[in-house]
Amino acid sequence: MAIKVTRAQKKAEYETRLCSLLDGFNKVLIATADNVGSTQLQTVRKGLRGDSVILMGKNTLIRRCLRVHAEKSGNGEFLNLLPVLVGNVGLIFTKGDLKEVSEEVAKYKVGAPARVGLVAPIDVVVPPGNTGLDPSQTSFFQVLNIPTKINKGTVEIITPVELIKQGEKVGSSEAALLAKLGIRPFSYGLVITSVYDSGSVFSPEVLDLTEEDLVRKFEVGVSMVAALSLAVSYPALAAAPHMFVNAYKNVLAVAVETEFTYPEAERVKEYLKDPSKFASAAPVVTADVGSSVAPVGVAKEDEKKEEPAEESDDDMGFSLFD
Length: 322
Fold this sequence. Notes:
Helix content: 40-55%
Order of helices and strands: HEHEHEHEEEHEEEHEEEHHHH
Number of helices: 10
């Protein structure tokens, strides 16, 4: 006869298992499991077997185990998971790459029909085409204001129709029509909502960042620090090159307006005294331009010289009718 395990013993076993996972892993993915069946969850477990472990349970029990583990081990980093334990969530403990594991979890999605009262996670659009239904089924389409026509003894939808919008509840008519058409518009699976790594909790979108994105964000941050530093005249490493350049411009302006001078300012003063030195390189450019224009002028003169030759042929004294 099998010994019946009490609820207290189940909680103690669950606490022991969760504490052992907390001691052995430092990376956790928090995933919602809404509308995910036991068979689908078992498939995900098999796919992640090796370096990842999925643990489901009640949020109150998980919170209690996290607090007990923090008191026993003195490590309170996992307490950062408490705020994200909301709803039907599970914990995926892993030793692999977080991005690869999240991509693997996203693969296991299963199509599901639209059930009455279910909130639509996406827009549902019925495509045009032959439905294969007999003309007696047109009442469903008339109730939902879907334009149809009878083609070869079957009902055909003329134009695509947005049947259900995201966030709306599925009605009985919509669910019956989608069932008749054999459309399974929704797909469900584990959805990663938060990521825990060595005491830090962040959004899963961070896993999609590349090195180029990080460099771009760093450059934007440096430019903002430099702009703020220049605006408040507070020295900072990011603004140091701009400050040196501005300071040199001010010193050069003082040297130009006064008798104070230094070697770098002498050349500027010489140019200001004799502006013709600015045009020292101009003859080369004008010569090139002139040389490039000259052939055009010569070509025009040649054309003009050739035109009288054509007229001279007409003045030879001969005529077409002579």
